[in-house]
Amino acid sequence: xxxxxxxxxxxxxxxxxxxxxxxxxxxxxxxxxxxxxxxxxxxxxxxxxxxxxxxxxxxxxxxxxxxxxxxxxxxxxxxxxxxxxxxxxxxxxxxxxxxxxxxxxxxxxxxxxx
Length: 114
Hints:
initiation factor, mainly beta, RNA binding, S1-like domain-containing protein, 7 strands
C-alpha cells in the first residue's frame, strides 16, 4: 500500500508510512469523520475556551492565608482559593457569602470572585 517504513495505527486499523501526510490523506477519506456525513454545519469538536460554573458559597474556615474551606447551599464542602491577581484587594472574612467559580471537571476546588 505505502512504500518505506510501515507503521500500524491501531485507531484506524490501517498501515501507513512514517510520513504524517500519508495517513492524514487516508483519515480524511473516511466518510464517518467528515462533517458532510454527519450533516453538521460546524466542526465536530467545538468547545468553549473555558467552561466554568458560578455559585454562591459560605466561607467556613481559613486553611491558609489565601485558601478557605467553603460550603455550597447543598452542603458540598470544597477548598476556595483567592487568585494571585486578586490578593492585593480586600480579602473576605470567615462567614462571608461569596461568589465562587468552579470547573465542572473538578468540584473539590474553586476560585473566589473578589
